Every structure is written in C-alpha cells, then in structure tokens.
C-alpha cells in the first residue's frame, strides 16, 4: 500500500509523527506499506514548521509545495493546484489527511477528483460554529472521505447522523496524545525558564490566536489587562505569534504579570504546560494535552469540537467575554480544580490502530 500523508500546519506535524512511526513499525514487521510525505507549506515560519520536524524526528518531506499564506480562497486554491500536479506525478493508493486546516480540505478534494481514496484522521469532530474556517474544512472533508478515524464516540455519532457508512467509521483514539506519550520523557525547559524565575505552578500559560481576540488593538489590550489582573502571585506566560506582536507594538502599555515570549517548539511548550498552574487559551487542540496532563484549562470560546475535554477532562468553556473568564477563574482560585479524567482510548496507541485498519482494508 502506498500512502501519501499531508502536512500543512503546526497541528498537522504533531499528528503525523506517530502515524509515520506506526508505518515504520509495520515495515519492520514485513508489511508491504510505504509513505510519501507532502508538506504543503501552509505554515512556513521555522518556529511553526521546521522545528516540529526536527524535534519529533519526522523525516524530511518528499516535497514541499511552498504555498505559504494568502486569503482562505487563495491559499486553498494554491494548495489544490500544486497538489494535483504532485499526485498525478506520484500516484498512490490512499491520501491520508489529519485535522481541519486548509491543506486537509484542499488535498482531500484533489484526491477524490483523481479517484484516490481518502482517510481522515480526527474525522467527525464538530463545533457547530460555521464562522470558523476549520468547521467548514471538517464538514467538506468528511463529506468525501472514505475511511474515518475518530477521537471520540461523539465524533463517530456525528458521522453516523450524516449517513456515513458505519463500516468505515473507526473510533481509534487521539494521535495528538500518541505524540505526547512518545515524547513526554524528552520535554525540556525553554532557555528563558531561569531568566523569568519560573517554577512549577508559579505561572499560567496564555495563548490567543483567533481573529476576534487579537486583530483589534483596543479589544486585545482590554482582554490582556483583564487577564493580567486575574492573579497577583502568578506570572502569565504568553507565547505570542509575530502577527499579534506586531499589533501590540502599536501600544506602549506595560503589564504587571504578563511575559511575552516567542512561539515555542513542541518539547518546550509541552514542558511549560506540564508545569503550569493553569492554561487560558482560545485553541481547541491545547485542551487535549491539558486533559491528559491534568492541567486546568480555560477555553475562551463559546463552543468546542472536543466536548470530551470538558465532560471528562480538565477543560472549561468560559465563552468569549472577559467578565465570564474572571468569574469562572475566580471560582477556580477559590475552590480548586474540578475532578477530571482521560477519555477512552487516549492511550497512545491510536496510530497503531489506524495503520492496522488501513492494511486490513488493502
């Protein structure tokens, strides 16, 4: 079986690493399976791309399509044009896509129009929020996918409601957690750990990237001031995207507790999360890792495509208002973290299940 694996953005790199490891193990066992790794170039900043390949021991991509940035339409179109040429020149039995970025949707469409089967890892998750580009990508990808690999029973149920073939829906667990378990003994403190006098539980991690939170200077500053005043005895570590940094550079306002640092590689960032007091984020994916590590996570969104992180895990959806965050975080400071657990099949073996299932379907 020839598999073409698509990676385009930071979350993709974390998800493909254990899948590639699983393929290599099957090769060592004598199975006839090979892979071609296609990097679309959707993320091209070294801290968002190359670093992850190096840290997670992902082999050098067979090709980098180098599409880079642009509007949603421009980027999607550029990926489709470049990947069509790539797939025609290097045909395969299966195109495997992960997650919900533009590369996921674009390469799925190209594959199906080239009569190539598609496997979607992390299929079926839904936020119900059509203002999110990722939600559109998920819906379109799942509408043409052949083999669905889900992280939760609720994701599988979403696919069944859409009429997907039950025989092709496979609840396998979470490949993000595979990567976490495979690298947990390799995580390390960043260079600034001692410089900022960081210690276990004496800081909070903050990540913000959604346009509604970071694109307007006055609302961003208001949000940051509110978060800055949430605690008096904790530092707040904010790995800030260069685009957000540029927005903030227009202001000379200082913060008491917030420390701005550059985007982190995987091993440093997981170390920071593991040793933090809590995480405040507008990301969906981070709540998966905090759930497994038992770190309280407060997600500044009105919804989540990962409901299991809230129903069983450490994640709390706090909405998008500063007032709601202040209220819920204040209750956390008073009452302590709520009980949490680890969702079913988040055991580090999802990638093995995926490759075994695909080889059975060969």
TrEMBL record:
The keyword Ribosomal protein does not apply. SUPFAM superfamilies: UDP-Glycosyltransferase/glycogen phosphorylase. Residues 32-358 form the UDP-N-acetylglucosamine 2-epimerase domain. GO terms for molecular function: isomerase activity. Keywords: Isomerase. Gene3D superfamilies: Glycogen Phosphorylase B. It comes from the Bacteria. Belongs to the UDP-N-acetylglucosamine 2-epimerase family. NCBIfam families: wecB (TIGR00236). This is UDP-N-acetylglucosamine 2-epimerase. It comes from Flavobacterium aquidurense.
